[in-house]
Design brief:
globular, CodB, transmembrane helix, Pur-cyt_permease, membrane, Purine-cytosine permease
Length: about 425
């Protein structure tokens, strides 16, 4: 079981970029990512929808590269790399709480999706009726156990899942083109009329949280270059590929319900099973990051990471089983809008104001950095209430600009605590 939570990952435990890229690919290959491609294509011609999806994932990639390099520099998770931008106490109580609630909530959402899909599989193909709540409970426990064991369990799971998912997608593309032809795909007319900003926003929103918490995985990277390559190879190709697959399946089925689309291609049973596997690879990261946030929030030692991950996943599973997520998802969506501005403040603090200098970062960590908290709050509000452009990016840019504007005239250089003292405390 992984023994590191807030502690710096020692050099001997660091991994190659492709190991981290594999987990990133597993985290993005999911039912929800396929549905994003399908939703975009419902409002745009196929080619334009694919371009919009690619632009969205490019934006997310830029965001996660900067966040990921911080993880590689310090070897600690997001809740600790946020200490300079928000202060040691601000990061511990405000940022950790936001990340914990969001990750736990989305673990529950994905568990509910997985449970419903599995129940549908069993009924459609075997005639066995399994209550959705029971399916959600079973799969919640399975996904949770993987997350509890930590990084290595995530790594081994993706060794199995990624090839299977890639094969499914390739087979799906071949069957779509064979059965429906390239000409009919080209002549497809969308049901809606989405603007470019709205379509790109759908793509960005699908993984904006993942980009913000990149350090949770890239803390295992040996160098900044490895953090960059892990995102470049693990996220962008997989994300764009899923937009293509989701779009093609939606064109064929007339709906972004991926299970129905696969059934129309004769891939219902096998395809649905692999889609459950895709949810598994994604949801383990939710529980894993939620556990890290809880460790920091409650000031626990690293050996409690497994227990906190267990608690995070258990709460999410219970939410899914009792159906509370039906009333919680809107709140969760609003809360999630507050996460991208976190990265805006962190990027402004480390990469702009401190020029990416590790020593400057380590030697200037106050207990509470009001500049960061104010900038985050403003970015959060703009992400929710400004309806022009892409909400997640509006929040990131607003928080970044305001942080820089406040930093130079008001920042106090009193000082402080190194990252090692924060971790020990």
């Amino acid at each position: 079981m992984e023994k590191y939570a807030l502690d710096r990952i020692p050099d001997s435990e660091r991994r190659s970029w492709w190991s981290i890229a594999l987990i990133w690919a597993g985290s993005i290959i999911s039912v929800s990512a396929l549905m994003v491609g399908g939703v975009i294509v419902q409002g745009m011609p196929l080619v334009q929808g694919i371009i919009a999806g690619a632009i969205g994932y490019t934006i997310v990639l830029v965001l996660m590269i900067f966040q990921g390099m911080m993880g590689a520099d310090f070897g600690v998770p997001t809740v600790i790399t946020a200490s300079s931008a928000f202060g040691s106490q601000g990061a511990k109580y405000v940022i950790s709480a936001i990340l914990a609630i969001s990750c736990i909530g989305w673990f529950g959402v994905q568990t509910g999706i997985c449970g419903a899909a599995f129940s549908q599989i069993m009924y459609m193909w075997l005639g066995v009726e399994i209550p959705v709540w029971l399916s959600g409970l079973i799969w919640g426990i399975i996904m949770l156990l993987t997350a509890v064991y930590g990084y290595e369990a995530l790594e081994y799971l993706n060794y199995i899942a990624i090839p299977a998912l890639i094969i499914l997608c390739i087979v799906g593309v071949v069957m779509v083109i064979k059965n429906f032809g390239a000409v009919s795909l080209k002549s497809y007319t969308p049901k809606e009329n989405y603007s470019w900003s709205y379509a790109i926003g759908l793509s960005v929103g699908g993984f904006a949280v993942g980009g913000t918490i990149a350090a949770d995985l890239t803390r295992y990277a040996r160098k900044r270059k490895d953090a960059i390559l892990s995102g470049l190879i693990g996220i962008w190709p997989a994300g764009v590929f899923l937009v293509v697959i989701g779009g093609l399946l939606t064109v064929v089925a007339g709906t972004f319900d991926i299970t129905i689309a696969l059934a129309q291609l004769g891939l219902g049973l096998i395809g649905s099973i692999i889609l459950v596997l895709a949810t598994w690879t994604t949801n383990t990261v939710n529980a894993y990051s939620g556990g890290l946030a809880l460790v920091n929030l409650f000031n626990l030692k690293s050996e409690k990471r497994g227990l906190m991950t267990l608690i995070a996943g258990a709460i999410g599973t219970i939410l899914a089983v009792v159906g509370l997520l039906d009333h919680f998802t809107s709140f969760l969506t609003i809360l999630t809008a507050g996460i991208p501005p976190v990265s805006g403040c962190m990027i402004a603090d480390y990469w702009i104001c401190k020029k990416g200098n590790k020593e400057a970062w380590q030697n200037n960590i106050p207990k509470v950095n009001w500049i960061g908290l104010i900038s985050w709050a403003v970015g959060f509000a703009i992400a929710i209430f400004v309806n022009v452009g892409i909400s997640a990016i509006n929040g990131v840019i607003a928080s970044m600009v305001l942080y820089c504007a406040l930093y130079y005239p008001f920042y106090s250089k009193k000082t402080v605590k190194s990252i090692e003292s924060i971790v020990e405390k």
